[in-house]
Amino acid sequence: MKEAIMSSTTATPKISTRSVNVFYGENQAIKDVSIDVEMDNVTAFIGPSGCGKSTFLRSLNRMNDTIVGARVEGKIELDGKNIYDPSMDVVQLRARVGMVFQKPNPFPKSIYDNVAYGPRIHGLCANKAELDMIVENSLQKAGLWDEVKDRLTNSGTALSGGQQQRLCIARAIAVDPEVILMDEPCSALDPIATAKIEELIHDLRGKYAIIIVTHNMQQAARVSQRTAFFHLGTLVEFGETSEIFTNPREEKTKDYITGRYG
Ligand SMILES: Nc1ncnc2c1ncn2[C@@H]1O[C@H](COP(=O)(O)OP(=O)(O)OP(=O)(O)O)[C@@H](O)[C@H]1O
């Protein structure tokens, strides 16, 4: 089988995938994808609708486990450890590899409790003062603290869409993840809220390995250092974002970024 490793890097990858296939029943959504994701970079996954971006993203923290009939083959390692190994604690894995979804999905709880939820269930704090500190730090990192510090007991669902999405990012950050997966995090947001999330991604770069699925090529160009282009379940090209957008090696990539399809 041809290995499509299109990333050449000397850095130790945070996530490494080799020959990954993902199936929904009989249908194969991801075909032989091998990719290395580094800590210091924001990595964008782009490609036409249905090409498998979200499916592949979900395989990186085993969210596909929750879909009946979904099956993942191949090797996916986090810090060199196979995440599909039976010894892997999936709850722990999803704390290390957090996820932010298309539609902001705060819990119907207070702003404080949304952020405190993860640290509480993972036992990350010894007392209320420590928890307060985690909540404040997480909201600071998500760029939301100043807007909510005087109303932490208000419901998270009463915030604006953009604020809700930053609350979801704070919730992911609160359990001290190493990787944050973002599945079209701005698709439900207006341009101003989108710009804030993009700024936030800039600020978070380097602290977490970030992978973002986006339909918006300008967004991929703005926020990422590396871009992977998917088509019909295969990884067509993976490389420096500037190269992918100005000098793609593959005809298919060129056709997509110049708007010929997708
Ligand atoms: N839960 C599911 N059950 C069955 N098939 C699925 C499921 N989710 C996705 N698929 C199929 O897998 C393929 C890849 O879908 P996926 O959502 O990963 O693509 P995508 O590139 O993220 O698309 P979009 O950009 O439209 O969100 C599609 O053919 C889709 O119909």
Automatic annotation (TrEMBL):
InterPro entries: AAA+_ATPase, ABC_transporter-like_ATP-bd, ABC_transporter-like_CS, P-loop_NTPase, PstB-like
Gene3D superfamilies: P-loop containing nucleotide triphosphate hydrolases
Domain of life the protein comes from: Bacteria
A single MF term (Gene Ontology): ATP binding
Keyword Membrane found: yes
Keywords: ATP-binding, Cell membrane, Membrane, Nucleotide-binding, Phosphate transport, Translocase, Transport
Domain ABC transporter: 15-257
Keyword Disulfide bond tagged: no
Localisation: Cell inner membrane
Membrane topology recorded in Swiss-Prot or TrEMBL: Peripheral membrane protein
Transmembrane region(s): none
PROSITE patterns: ABC_TRANSPORTER_1, ABC_TRANSPORTER_2
One GO process term, biological-process aspect: phosphate ion transmembrane transport
PANTHER family noted in UniProt: ABC TRANSPORTER I FAMILY MEMBER 17
Function: Part of the ABC transporter complex PstSACB involved in phosphate import. Responsible for energy coupling to the transport system.
Protein name in the entry: Phosphate ABC transporter ATP-binding protein
